[in-house]
Amino acid sequence: MKEIVKKKCMVQAALVLLLVLCFSCAAAQEAKDLTNACIISSPDKTTDKVHDGAYTSFWQSRTNEKPHLEFQTPEGESAQYLYICFAEMPEAWSIEEEINGEWQTSIEGTTDYYHVLVALNGKNHFRLVGISEKKSYLKLNEVFVFSDGELPDWVQQWEPTPKKADLLLLVAHPDDELIFFGGTIPTYAVEKNMNVVVAYMSYSNTTRRSELLNGLWHMGLRQYPVIGDFGDVYMRSLDDAYAHWTKRKSRAYITELIRQYKPDVMLTHDINGEYGHGAHKLCANVTQYCVEHSGDETFMPESAEKWGTWTVKKLYLHMGRENTIFMDWHVPLESMGGKTGLELAQEAYAYHVTQQSTSFTVTDEGRTGNAKFSLVYSQVGEDQIGGDFFENLGSSNESTPSEALEPEPTSTPTPDYDKVTADVEWPVEKPKVDAYGYPLSGEYVHSDDENGLWFYASPTLVIRIDRFFDAEQVLTWYEAQVFCDLNAERVGSILYNPSKPQQKHVQASLIAKQNQVVWGMNTDYYTYRVGRKTITGMVIRDKQVFYDRVPAANRRQFPNLDTLAMLEDGSWRVFHSDEHSAQEYLDMGAVDVFSFGPYLIRDGEINPFIAEMTNGKTPQPRCAIGMVEPGHYYAVLAEGRIRNISIGVSIAQMAELMQKGGCKEALNLDGGQTAVMLFMGEQISRIGKYDGGKTNARATTEIIGVGHSDLIDPDAK
User: Fold this and answer.
1) Each residue of 524-580: pLDDT tens digit?
2) Looking at residue 27, what is its pLDDT?
3) What is d(CA 411, CA 390) in angstroms, rounded to the nearest whole number?
4) For position 411, what pLDDT does the model report?
């Protein structure tokens, strides 16, 4: 019996020892980060920034014939891996090892990947060397040295870009693939195991290139993206984008992407640039053109000769109104531990460290949410079910080159909104118009400053501005009637710099001109209140909440920061300053919310408390905007402080003008030198003297506007 017990104890002890050994082996399998323990040096150059943990910084060697970065591992340790994050790619590079006192090339590096892992096989003293026929330098974002073992999951070991793509996603800049395309990459590249090529027009800068690689890797993408070298500048219009990137160069790049990677499905930006970015507009505009012509060998013959021709089967643009589908990015992805595509995109966006101070978010909600797409080109018919970019393509990912085919026509769905009738007199001979009074084609522009009449008409927009003069009151004012097809046009905020919306103030006419805006006027000039001893009020632009601290409703204060909410369906509503929270505005469908006040008209009735506002009783330059019905809007600007021309109006007079114009809802906006009326990129109203004689308009960061016309030269002085 004692012998049996003794044997059992020995077996148990052996098992315990085995478990300990297994645990020790498992622990030993994790690679150690040796970087901080290594001696890292370079001739005549400190190396602190080569491993400071920040991709926002970089290290650059001295320029010489053989720039290098030398590593000596700590005693008793050897380097198994070197992980290099290049800021700039040298012409060539290698790893050299010191053998018998001489440096000898042991590894020739690849220039295919900006983030690259090199297997060193236990080296102790080695160096990274840049190779060029002339003097050059090494420029790195980060380097890491690891011992033998299992590497951290953030260390990138890229695979080649697929030779044949199932899906080609083209974006303008780093992070666009996340903000505007949500869970596309993890859903199709990882969960569905399809060949997804992510292509960028611009990498913006070396830091953002590293950020995009870090974000893609986190989402599970392992096939290296295509990173273009177009420069990154903010572009306010499509023409501005063409001026910077050129139409031919853009078409050549995108056509070569199509022909080289031969995608079945292609995705890119919204035709209107999401929030108006010219580079995004270019991606949509050029991609549509290239998709239609990439099957023609006479179009861009250089790439046709190199790669052959190709016809894409389906092209989707972000957002849109016709042939739309909605993607569900909330489906748990088994391949990614149950996380959803949207969650992974949001996590990946956190790797874009330099962008965290912006107002952009990764969401499938709101006007620019990343779940809505429109099928604008199809060889396989319309989508019937939705929710999958590969509908009608079957389960096979294989495809073969085909002759250029005429895409199947797609039917036009019933408009989302009824078209409002443009009931207005034309100052020129009226062409053929549709049943609602809009011309069937073309643009019609009439500008007569002498007689005070401005007019514009297109198939989706009709505008008439009249200037009036009352000699008895010594009053000059402008009335603008705006009729728009809500399926194509929206009156709303237009920002000078959407990425930094509050920083730079310019003339309102410049914003209108550079964005080629047909009609516009000033806003609530909220930036004047920012940073002062006053409350800014409710400020929402394009569904982004800028400020939401509001005062209690006040009948006497001027301005009392009442609000005008421009809703997604084209309807407008006015409210007391404290009537709703920011979230409540968003929930009701507000795209823009302006705060100034008082509100002038609500449900067709004049605000009964206007009489109590003592500061609003004197005649001043003032302006207001309102809604007659969704799609029909009305604005008034009264000039003031101009001797013998116009003294201005009181708030009560402005309310009467807005009611006379048929407004059901109307808000008083900032007046004085802020008040401007704009037509075809030009200011048509005048500013009275202020501050010792100035007559120029107050600089601003934004305007309210509608319409886009290529007849406006965005570069005109």
Assistant:
1) 999 988 877 778 899 999 999 999 988 887 767 788 999 999 999 899 999 999 999
2) 46
3) 19
4) 38
Closest by CA position to 258, among listed 295, 206, 224, 209: 295
Residue labelled with tokens 């290239």: 290
User: 334: closest CA among 418, 220, 178?
Assistant: 220
**How is residue 91 written in tokens?**
């012409």
- What confidence score (pLDDT) does residue 415 get? 40
Nearest to 571 by CA among 473, 672, 665, 648: 665
Task: Give the span between the Cα atoms of 480 and 636, in whole angstroms.
Answer: 6
Q: With DSSP H G I counted as helix, E B as strand and the rest as coil, what are the percentages for the chain, rounded to 5?
A: 20, 30, 50
Distance of alpha carbon 344 from alpha carbon 349, whole angstroms: 9
Does pLDDT of 458 surpass 60?
yes
- Of 543, 531, 535, 538, the C-alpha closest to 502 is 531
For the stretch 222-259, pLDDT in tens is 999 999 999 988 888 888 899 899 999 999 999 999 99
Encode pLDDT of 385-398 as tens digits: 999 999 999 753 33
Q: Give the β-pairing of 632-638 and 622-629.
A: antiparallel
Under 8 Å between Cβ of 199 and 226: yes
Q: For the chain, which residues make up each domain, given as ranges?
A: 1-30, 35-146, 167-378, 467-708
**Which of 415, 401, 248 lies closest to 313, judged by CA?**
401
Tell me the C-alpha distance between 364 and 180, whole Å. Answer: 8
**What's the rounded Cα separation, in Å, for the pair 221 and 185?**
7
Tokens coding 226? 């295509």
What are the Cα distances from residue 361, in Å, to 348, 355, 538, 565? 12, 10, 20, 22
Which pLDDT belongs to residue 693? 64
Measured CA to CA, the distance from residue 626 to residue 19 in angstroms comes to: 77
Quote the tokens at residue 233: 């500048």
Whole-number Å distance between alpha carbons of 675 and 482: 18
Residue of 553, 683, 682 whose CA lies nearest to 623: 683
Does the CA dihedral 52-54-55-60 come out positive or negative? Answer: negative
Q: How far apart are CA 126 and CA 516, in angstroms?
A: 58
Q: Cis omega (within 30 of 0) on the bond before 559?
A: yes
Q: What's the mean pLDDT in 304-323?
A: 95
> Residue type for 491, please?
V
Q: Across the chain, which distance is largest between two alpha carbons, in Å? A: 125
Residues facing 83 on adjacent strands: 117, 144
Q: Enter the DSSP assignment of 473.
A: T
CA distance to 125, 402, 404, 482, per residue, from 295 (Å): 54, 8, 5, 43
Helical H segments across 142-229, by residue range: 176-179, 184-185, 206-218
pLDDT, tens digit (0-9, with 9 covering 90-100), for 656-672: 999 999 999 999 999 99
Mean pLDDT of 142-161: 96
Is 80 exceeded by the pLDDT of residue 14?
no
18, pLDDT greater than 50:
no
Give the residue from 90, 126, 91 showing the smallest Cα distance to 106.
126
Judge whether residue 419 has pLDDT over 90.
no
Q: Determine contact, residues 379/405, Cβ cutoff 8 Å.
A: yes
Sign of torsion over alpha carbons 389, 391, 393, 398: positive
Tokens 């009637």 found at? 481
Q: Nearest 5 degrees, angle CA 324-CA 329-CA 330?
A: 130
Residue 321: what pLDDT?
87
Q: Can you tell me the distance from the alpha carbon of 561 to that of 552, in angstroms, rounded to the nearest whole number?
A: 9
Cα 40 to chain centroid, rounded? 40
CB hemisphere CA count around 710 (13 angstroms): 5
Q: For 167-378, CATH number?
A: 3.40.50.10320
Fold equal for 35-146 and 167-378: no
CA angle 613-658-632, nearest 5°? Answer: 140
User: Coil, strand or helix: which one is 7?
Assistant: helix
Looking at the domain 35-146, which fold is it?
Jelly Rolls (2.60.120)
